[in-house]
């Protein structure tokens, strides 16, 4: 029986719909598709990252043992501990060693914005493709779209620079500079050498996509502005004697 109710539920939503996929070739629709894709790239490159940093440790009863600390989004590094060199903990001289820093707020802000932008772009594309005539006839819709576009451009600016700063700190917190801060490596007879860390090139790419998203949304502000009464009023004022 649900199949009989489906047309009754869908038909009110489709009232007044005029499907026009040519809007995707117009600047307003094309830019929205790019914004949607870039939001996916930001979410995937930052939210899907997994890596590890490795040290080479020699201590009592242990020679050149590789220990690792695995980290991932949302980069709560202060909860990530290195694996112990051996079950006896280097004769009792080795204690749990954690990475430094909690960068979850910056990373989650960045990724959450991408997720919200993804959803908004889908909604906007549905309106552009199916209800653009309604969008143009109601002066409130372009103004709302303009306000959201301006706010989104600003949020991309803030979140991208905040995430870029956090990424720089993550690289420091997982790189060779962590050795001097490890007390267990200062124990007599213990030596630690930095071995490697997972490449964070994909995270650099996420910053690039964040900046490109900011530029796209800033340009989108102008495209939407041309559809508002504000632009039309300004044209009438400038053309009047």
Tell me the strand percentage band.
Answer: 5-15%
Number of domains: 1
The profile of the biggest β sheet is: 3 strands, antiparallel
Distance N to C terminus: 66 Å
Number of strands: 3
Membrane topology: Multi-pass membrane protein
GO cellular component, one term: synaptic vesicle membrane
InterPro entries: Marvel, Synaptophysin/porin
Protein name: SYPL1 protein
Task: Give the secondary structure arrangement, pairings included.
Layout: H1 2-14, H2 27-47, E1 50-59, E2 62-72, H3 89-92, H4 104-130, H5 132-137, H6 140-173, E3 191-197, H7 201-225, H8 229-239
Antiparallel strand pairs: 1-2, 1-3
Identify the notable features of this structure and list them briefly.
241 residues; three-stranded antiparallel beta sheet; 59% helix; rod-shaped; disordered N terminus; Marvel; SYPL1 protein; membrane
Give a short synopsis of this structure:
The chain has 241 residues and is mainly alpha-helical. The chain has helices at 2-14, 27-47, 89-92, 104-130, 132-137, 140-173, 201-225, 229-239; strands spanning 50-59, 62-72, 191-197. It has a three-stranded antiparallel sheet with strand order 2-1-3, with no helix packed on it.
